[in-house]
Amino acid sequence: MNNIGIIGASGFLGSYMQDRLDAVAIRGRFGWPRRYWLEAADRYKNLDTIVIAARACRKEKPRRNIHTITKEVAGLANILKAFHDRRIIYTSSRSVFDNSIDEYEPISRENITKMVEIASRGHLRNLTINLPNDVTPLTPLSSCSPATDDYTVYSATKLCGESLVRCCRDFTIFRIWDIEQ
Predict the structure, then answer these.
(1) Phi and psi at residue 3, in whole multiples of 5°?
(2) Which helix H or strand E contains 131, and what residues bound it?
(3) What kind and span of H or E run contains 144?
(4) What is the DSSP letter of 167?
(5) C-alpha 108: how far from chain center
(6) Are 96 and 140 in contact (CB under 8 A)?
(7) Residue 136 near residue 98, CB atoms below 8 Å
(8) What is the residue-wise DSSP string for 54-90?
(9) Among 141, 147, 149, which residue's Cα sits nearest to residue 175?
């Protein structure tokens, strides 16, 4: 298996992936300076694949606002710059599409992790994949009626993140619907 590092390994999905993939937890926060991420990239130069399973949100309401979107997008740009020579796997969200799609089954962390493992081996390069795979969203959120503020901010954050990740030479984006609890 390739050497995998996970940013966001303390979360629900990231911790599961770290255990199952025998991956390295890369400690860090989106708000940390670029020099930290450059040092981390040097410290973890043996890693082939970087999984970004982290997100920025606040514990108190509003959970997401202009500060969280700018922190996550700027932080992601720093991470991508630092790990520019690695395979990037980015966990996005169904939030980039109309929230009215509700005819789907949640996906398990196990199945997400299997897909990440496949991508870490060099398969699924430069693709955006919906998980579960049978979901075919039709309407981008920007064309829909407004959602809640938290939802709109989160979807904009993920869309910006996807745009940044697509600039990488080797990436896979997984748009995850709901994860089984």
Answers:
(1) -80, 125
(2) strand 127-131
(3) none
(4) T
(5) 16
(6) yes
(7) no
(8) -----SSSSSS-HHHHHHHHHHHHHHHHHTTTSEEEE
(9) 141
Residue written as token pair 């009626």:
145
In the block, residue with structure tokens 């700018």: 70
CB count within 10 Å of CB 118 equals: 13
3-state secondary structure of 130: strand
CB 161 within 8 Å of CB 76: yes
Q: What is the pLDDT of residues 37-47, one digit of tens each?
A: 999 999 999 99
- Domains, the chain, ordered by start: 4-176 (3.40.50.720)
Cα distances (Å, whole numbers) of residue 22 to 9, 103, 107, 137, 159: 11, 34, 21, 33, 29
DSSP secondary structure, 3-53, as one string:
-EEEETTTSHHHHHHHHHHTPEE----TTS-HHHHHHHHHHTTT-SEEEE-
If you ran DSSP here, which 8-state letter would residue 143 be given? G
State both tokens at 94: 């169904």
Per residue, what are the HEC states of 95-118?
A: HHECCCCCCCCCECHHHHHHHHHH
| 35 has a pLDDT exceeding 50 | yes
pLDDT of residue 143: 45
How high is the pLDDT of residue 3? Answer: 95
